[in-house]
Amino acid sequence: MDELDLVPLPRNLANPDGSANFALEPAGDARLSQWMDTRLTLATWVKPDGVQLNSVETAVLRRLRPPLNLDEVGEP
Q1: Are residue 37 and residue 48 in the same domain, yes or no?
Q2: What is the number of domains present in the chain?
């Protein structure tokens, strides 16, 4: 947030609470999009027969510990 100078804006001015109710100002949104384009990649994997995807997902999340996946990572 600080590195990209991101400024959150409430989506609902009548009730501006909760992180799901915020967006970024347009210039910050563009900076974040550029940051993601530069740093993020997408990969695919063909699931072998008999493999349960839920257990694979959980193992990957626990290993990579993505900060935005609170359900499986278990950190605030």
Answers
A1: no
A2: 2
